[in-house]
Write a structure and sequence with these properties.
The complex is a heterodimer of chains A (430) and B (253). By secondary structure, chain A is mainly α. Chain A contains 18 helices and 9 strands. Chain A folds into 3 domains: 178 residues, no CATH class; 108 residues, Cytochrome Bc1 Complex, Chain D, domain 2, CATH 1.10.760; 108 residues, Cytochrome c-like domain (Cytochrome Bc1 Complex, Chain D, domain 2, Orthogonal Bundle), CATH 1.10.760. Classes of the chains: A mainly alpha (430), B mainly alpha (253).
Chain lengths: 430, 253
């Protein structure tokens, strides 16, 4: 039925597209040149403002997307693969021809806050302005000052390779009507300043919801869906639900566990891996303890979740799990322990680990296939690692051992099927 | 053929893993006689880099039988560290390696490189495809004399008289499997293996014909090993081409 939903959404898009064309079909506005900006060059050269901006750009992990493999930081030059086609990631260094060299702060604010380019064109939401719209004016100014202080790098953007109708930029009028609400973060006076700071960081610059919430067939997150977990399109990792309360993805996590994971890459409850390993290494480990505590406070306030509907097993799960037990004893037990509790500070627990028990089984499957190092942080400069098993275990064996760890000890997740393993075995890395 | 090779690879890998787990088990048993629920994990680099040693071997011996996972033992440390950086930067393309080294710091990569560089493991022979004697002769010619008419330098002119490599950045070629050598030369031509510009090996690989690659890979893989397999001292060769990894700058000729 997914196609039906997709088709009807597509019809909605086309209708709104036509309407949008009629209503807003005029050509883009003239950009504000830096010379006429209300923000003076002196302001932008203020070292304190630049330092603040550098910290905020790190919090937002801007470099995470705006840097090509092996390329200069912030110089773009790569494409972001989406289910709708490839979207180029722009150069945000102050190069005049290929970067933000001719941008005024007003242009930058319009992009970050309203999702519009320098000429008023609607930006593709691969740039997460759905979150960045919450960033306040002062913080945006600091980030802009920092970006303008970078050495300019000449790096033209890659071509946009979107499929029709997504290739028609104006179709975004419809998308924005469905998924985008412009507006700065509004503090909740009933909550503590710490909670409000956490909410501001999580919902705004941290853009956590861009991965930690499910996207629908048009690539949007409905407005009421907040940090409930979701599969990351194309990358095929599952970003878990972030509630620490009943049935939450982080059920039982203390605030300290959240702070530990974000600061060191490891916690008593699990280790960051996949895309989150990069987020920790490049962004969260550099955040102040106050900001990390604020994030933990805010996440701790997320509501309990509904009990997930138990899946009907169409085949004999017990036989698969039994087979997985033998593989576990042979390959996994030495590090993760018979009891699945791991070794504190060295190997993560599998028992009660939200990444093991997340709804899809993708994370457990891919970890078994890929192995790899725990995130490299100031606290763990020489992390331990896990062997990749892709070369050693068949699809059936991986499904068996993944199912075993998902259904042992306190874990009660669904089994993983061999054809899923086959699919994730061939997911391109990055 | 491919199936057989991958099965062989799996068996080898499983074998090394079994050996590894046995080592771990013995170590554990020595520490704590009753098998504990929480195993004792040694605080060693070897333990930390299981992600590497699972395929490359605990001592970096590789999988000489299949030629798929190259030997790392005894290769110059700077060369090994450079390869990890090249994988990080996408100059060398192999998704599992790119994923594994993605987050590692230069200091950690250097430490890992030094670990493998100092391992002493006897070389073992790898299977060789049937190649005619004329191909082996051509290969030997390329190794020791090159082909001046086509501006192909001799392998030995950079990789050392005994082809055991040269400190700090030139790897040895002896003892490498046929499959590995021919695959790497192919990778340079298809841009899935590159390094700092000017990339002299890319120049050389592109001057070789397909049959040259077969010839030189077969000749290298069938060479007798010298008594001393250590890399030659730094500065003991003068490379005929500018190489970025050896500090040269500018474009390739």
């Amino acid at each position: 039925m997914k196609w039906l939903r997709r088709l009807s959404l597509l019809i909605v898009v086309l209708i709104v597209l036509v309407l949008g064309w009629v209503l807003f079909g005029r050509s883009g506005r003239e950009p504000t040149p830096p010379g006429t900006s209300k923000v003076t060059a002196t302001t932008l050269h203020d070292p304190a403002l630049i330092a603040k901006g550098e910290y905020l750009a790190t919090v937002g992990d801007c470099a995470g997307c705006h840097t090509a493999q092996g390329g200069a930081r912030y110089a773009g030059g790569r494409s972001l693969a989406t289910p709708f086609g490839d979207i180029p990631v722009p150069n945000i260094t102050p190069d005049r021809e290929t970067g933000l060299g001719d941008w005024s702060f007003e242009n930058f604010w319009q992009a970050l806050h309203a999702g519009k380019g320098r000429h008023g064109e609607l930006l593709y939401p691969a740039f997460s302005y759905t979150s960045y719209t919450k960033v306040d004016h002062d913080d945006a100014l600091a980030i802009f000052a920092f970006l303008q202080s970078l050495p300019p790098v000449h790096q033209p953007a890659k071509p946009t390779l979107l499929k029709f109708p997504y290739s028609v930029r104006k179709s975004l009028v419809a998308w924005r009507a469905l998924y985008f609400t412009e507006g700065e973060f509004q503090p909740d006076p009933a909550q503590s300043p710490q909670w409000n700071r956490g909410a501001y960081l999580v919902q705004g610059l941290g853009h956590c919801n861009e991965c930690h919430a499910a996207r629908d067939s048009l690539g949007g997150t409905p407005p009421d869906v907040h940090l409930t977990g979701g599969q990351i399109p194309m990358q095929n990792w599952y970003a878990p639900d972030l509630s620490t309360r009943q049935n939450g993805g982080l059920q039982g996590w203390r605030e300290q566990d959240i702070v530990d994971l974000l600061k060191t890459g490891q916690s008593a409850r699990g280790v960051a891996f996949g895309p989150m390993a990069g987020v920790v290494a490049n962004s969260t480990q550099h955040m102040t303890d106050d900001d990390l505590r604020a994030i933990a406070t805010y996440l701790g306030s997320l509501p309990p979740r509904a009990l997930p509907v138990a899946e009907t097993q169409l085949f004999n799960a017990d036989a698969i799990v039994r087979g997985g037990g033998k593989i576990y004893a042979q390959h996994c037990e030495q590090c993760h322990g018979k009891d699945g509790n791991g070794v504190a500070g060295v190997y993560p627990p599998l028992n009660g680990n939200s990444s093991v028990t997340e709804p899809t089984g993708i994370n457990a499957t891919r970890m078994i296939l890929l192995g790899g190092f725990a995130p490299l942080t100031a606290s763990h400069p020489r992390p331990y690692s896990m062997p990749p098993f892709a070369q050693q275990l068949s699809d059936v064996e991986v499904s068996a051992v993944a199912s075993y760890i998902r259904r042992s000890w306190a874990n009660q997740a669904s089994v993983v099927r061999p054809d899923d393993v086959s699919k994730y075995r061939h997911t391109p890395i990055d | 053929m491919r199936n057989r090779r991958s099965r062989l690879r799996a068996v080898r890998c499983l074998g090394s893993l079994l050996a590894l787990s046995l080592v771990g088990f013995v170590a554990m048993a020595a520490d704590q006689p009753s098998t504990p629920a929480h195993p004792a994990i040694p605080d060693t680099l070897q333990q930390r880099i299981i992600a590497c040693t699972t395929c490359h071997g605990v001592h970096g011996e590789g999988t000489p039988g299949s030629g798929y996972f190259p030997r790392l033992a005894g290769k110059p440390a700077a060369y090994l560290a450079r390869q990890m950086q090249d994988f990080q930067n996408g100059l060398r393309k192999y998704a599992p390696m790119e994923y594994t080294v993605r987050q590692l710091s230069p200091a950690y990569m250097q430490e890992i490189a030094e670990y493998f560089a100092t391992q002493q493991v006897p070389y073992s022979r790898s299977p060789l495809p049937p190649v005619p004697a004329t191909a082996l002769q051509r290969g030997e010619q390329l190794i020791s004399k090159g082909d001046p008419a086509r501006r192909i330098p001799a392998c030995a002119s950079c990789h050392g008289n005994q082809l055991t490599g040269v400190e700090p950045s030139t790897p040895g070629l002896v003892g490498l499997p046929y499959d590995y050598i021919s695959a790497q030369l192919g990778s340079w031509r298809t841009h899935t293996r590159a390094t700092l510009a000017p990339d002299c090996m890319a120049v050389v690989a592109n001057r070789l014909t397909d049959s040259d690659i077969t010839a030189v890979a077969a000749a290298l893989a069938s060479r007798q090993l010298p008594a001393d397999t250590h890399a030659q001292a730094a500065g003991s060769v003068t490379p005929p081409l500018p190489c970025g990894v050896l500090g040269a700058t500018g474009d390739t000729p």
